[in-house]
Every structure is written in structure tokens, then in C-alpha cells.
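step=encode ok
step=design start
structure_in=
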């Protein structure tokens, strides 16, 4: 799938400064999980409040994960343990609300499936976690896809499951067309994916059109919506995604929060919300309601074109706030590649964008396509951008109702840490 480039449901506004108060906090063991620290720096007060997306219960749960830095088991079910040579899939198929599966250290050369029967509750998530202090690796070397249309494996395939948490392990070496480390498909809901180390996910011919791979793909390819998702503090690097993206949110998807992740050298676009490619009924064939907050993207370059690091294409009601983009083809873009469809209600605010060849911010799609409307661009800071576009910091094509204000060029390196940009410190997992 080529993804090159509603109403707001939030009830909880979470001040960014509340997170800043957690500077270098180390939280005690919770529900059997190891202590994880959340480190956030703040140089000056930062006025924007980030807004989580999802239903009320999910916002409460996601807020707890983000502000404590701990993806903790509920402690309401049974605790299971499995190693590389055990029947991991069989145990997962039997998990009930509140259960926890701890994976012991070692290399797992297998794919995992979480189907609709794997259902927790809003007060009792099912948790699959690395055993504290042990290195757990899922290696896709030599594995094939799960159907005839997919050459490469999806190492963790979530289809219709709900109230599930994956945390603390490594996923590597998924190779082939449409390979992925984590794949969420229709009907999946209330999912937390946190503290994973994902690397070397690749497609064999990245310059060939429609040769794709993803580190994390949230793909709503039917009328059954994927909703209430948190991707938190994952590290993704050394991938070759071809004509797709490292983190892709596509088609019929609602309320996805991408917070505090680090993406480096992933090829093409790092984070993308894309819609209107004919993967779901037209009335719902687009992501709506998204938060992309506090992520760091470095050294991402498209091998066949110029691609911005963070991109909304046919999406609606998505906030890109407090992210850092450095040494990429471009910074953050709101475009619409498919005619007859719109990208609207996009916020690009208080991001740090440096060494971006095309521009810091792009609005609209050059050469036609759909329409971009209702975009706010403010408080962004940028340095060393636009040398491929004649020095442009903000590029604008066909678009309407666009407001830009209080964006500024950083004159020297001493100003690079102003204003406040959140930095989430990943725990030692690998």
C-alpha cells in the first residue's frame, strides 16, 4: 500500500507541565513489573496542553501509563510464565481478563496471534510482558507472511482483540513485502504497545512501488473500527519501509495516541496518518482523532522521493504537538493525495524542527490531489531548514483556512532547548 505521505472526543486535558513535575521520578515495582523511570525535561513553562484521544476509561488508563512511566499489569488475574520453547501461543489463547504472561529471556523465532477471543476488561487488561531483567527477543528471520498476499511476517498480529498490553521486549528481522513487527487489524480496541525495541524491519525492494514494510501498522481495512490505542515510548530504528512508514495509522481507525517514541533511520516517513485509499467503506476510510506528542524522529529519508518525517494524508482531527524532528527530508506535513477527499482539523504546534531539507512544515499537496483545510501552525521552532526549496520554512500549496503564527527561526544553538519540548527516557530494555 502506498501511503507516502470528526469531532474531538477528548474529555481530559493533561497539562504538559504535569509531566514535567515527574522529572527523573523512579516508581516502585507495581504488580510484578520492574521499576521503569520516566524522565522529562522542561526549560521554561510551556502553555500547550496535549489532549489524549479515546473513550473516558481509555484516557484514564493511558494517562496513568504516560504520567507514571509504568505499563503495569492489573493484578486481577492469573500470572503465567513462558520461555522460547514453550507453547506461548497456546497460553495466549487461554488468557482471561486481568491475566499476565511474563516471557522469559531468550530468542523466540515465531509469530504471535491475538484474535478476538483475547479480551480483557477496562479494569483488567491482559498484559504480555518481558520478564523484568531478562532480554526477550522475537526474531522474524526465515518466517513468512500469514496469507498469500503477504511475503513477510507480522510478528505480533492483533485482530479483534481488546484491552491488551504488550510491553518490554524486542522485535527484529521481519523481512519481506508487507512485513511488520506489530500489526493491528479490524475490531482491535483498547491496546497499549509500550517500551518495545523494534529494528531491522524491511521490504526487499524499497525503491519499487508498493513494496512496503512497517514497524507498527494500525490498519482499519474494513467497516470494523480500530480504536483506543496508545503507542508509548517505543524505540524503532534501522528499518527499510519502502513505500510505507515506520508507524502507519491507516483507513478506519479512531483515537490513536503516539507518545514519546524514538524513531531513527527508518526509511521514508516515520509517522503517518493516512486515509482514502479504498481499504474501508468510504464514509470511514480515514483516521480520525489522533495525538502525536513528544516523539523524536531523526535521520529518516525516503529512497524514491522527498518525504516529511511526520505526515497527515487524508486524516482528520489530529494533533502534532511537542515533537522533535532532526536531519530528515522534511519536518511535519498536512497533505491530501487522493482527489475528492480532504485532510482537515490538523494542529501542528510547538515542535522543534531542525536540519530538514525540504521545509520545517508543509501544507497541501503539490500537483493536485485532495484538499487541505482548517490547519493551525503555531509555536514551532526551526533551524537549518529548506535548502531544497529555496530556503522555505513553511511550504503551502492548495489549502484553505490555514493559520500560522508565533513560528520562529532559531538563531543559534544556545536556543535549541527553548521553549519546552518533552523528552521521554526509555528504560534499559536491550
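sequence_out=
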Amino acid at each position: 500500500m502506498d501511503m507516502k505521505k470528526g469531532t474531538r472526543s477528548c474529555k481530559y486535558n493533561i497539562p504538559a507541565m504535569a509531566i514535567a513535575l515527574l522529572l527523573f521520578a523512579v516508581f516502585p515495582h507495581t504488580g510484578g513489573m520492574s521499576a521503569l523511570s520516566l524522565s522529562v525535561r522542561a526549560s521554561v513553562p510551556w502553555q500547550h496542553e496535549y489532549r489524549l484521544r479515546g473513550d473516558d476509561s481509555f484516557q484514564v488508563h493511558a494517562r496513568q501509563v504516560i504520567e507514571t512511566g509504568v505499563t503495569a499489569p492489573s493484578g486481577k488475574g492469573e500470572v503465567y510464565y513462558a520461555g522460547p520453547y514453550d507453547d506461548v501461543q497456546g497460553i495466549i489463547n487461554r488468557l482471561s481478563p486481568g491475566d499476565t504472561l511474563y516471557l522469559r529471556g531468550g530468542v523466540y523465532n515465531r509469530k504471535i496471534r491475538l484474535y478476538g477471543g483475547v479480551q480483557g476488561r477496562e479494569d483488567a487488561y491482559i498484559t504480555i510482558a518481558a520478564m523484568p531483567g531478562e532480554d526477550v527477543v522475537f526474531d522474524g528471520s526465515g518466517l513468512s507472511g500469514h496469507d498469500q498476499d503477504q511475503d513477510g511476517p507480522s510478528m505480533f498480529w492483533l485482530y479483534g482483540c481488546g484491552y491488551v498490553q504488550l510491553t518490554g521486549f524486542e522485535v527484529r528481522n521481519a523481512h519481506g513485502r508487507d512485513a511488520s513487527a506489530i500489526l493491528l487489524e479490524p475490531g482491535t480496541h483498547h491496546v497499549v504497545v509500550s517500551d518495545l525495541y523494534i529494528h531491522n524491519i524491511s521490504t526487499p525492494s524499497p525503491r519499487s512501488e508498493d513494496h512496503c514494510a512497517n514497524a507498527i501498522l494500525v490498519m482499519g481495512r474494513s467497516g470494523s473500527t480500530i480504536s483506543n490505542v496508545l503507542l508509548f515510548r517505543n524505540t524503532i530504528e534501522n528499518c527499510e519501509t519502502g513505500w510505507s512508514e515506520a508507524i502507519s495509522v491507516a483507513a478506519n481507525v479512531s483515537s490513536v495516541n503516539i507518545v514519546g517514541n524514538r524513531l531513527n533511520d527508518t526509511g521514508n516517513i516515520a509517522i503517518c496518518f493516512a486515509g482514502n485509499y479504498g481499504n474501508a467503506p468510504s464514509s470511514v476510510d480515514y483516521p480520525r482523532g489522533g495525538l502525536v506528542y513528544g516523539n523524536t524522529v531523526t535521520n529518516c529519508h525516503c529512497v524514491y522521493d522527498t518525504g516529511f518525517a511526520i505526515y497527515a494524508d487524508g486524516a482528520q482531527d489530529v494533533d502534532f504537538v511537542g515533537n522533535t524532528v532532526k536531519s530528515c527530508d522534511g519536518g511535519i506535513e498536512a497533505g491530501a493525495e487522493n482527489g475528492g477527499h480532504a485532510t482537515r482539523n490538523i494542529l501542528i504546534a510547538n515542535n522543534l524542527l531542525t536540519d530538514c531539507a525540504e521545509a520545517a512544515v508543509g501544507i497541501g499537496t503539490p500537483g493536485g490531489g485532495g484538499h487541505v483545510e482548517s490547519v493551525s501552525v503555531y509555536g514551532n521552532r526551526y533551524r537549518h531548514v529548506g535548502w531544497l526549496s529555496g530556503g522555505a520554512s513553511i511550504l503551502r500549496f492548495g489549502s484553505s483556512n490555514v493559520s500560522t503564527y508565533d513560528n520562529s527561526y532559531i538563531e543559534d544553538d544556545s536556543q535549541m532547548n527553548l521553549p519546552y519540548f518533552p523528552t521521554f527516557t526509555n528504560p534499559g530494555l536491550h
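step=design ok
step=annotate ok -> The longest helix spans residues 56-68.
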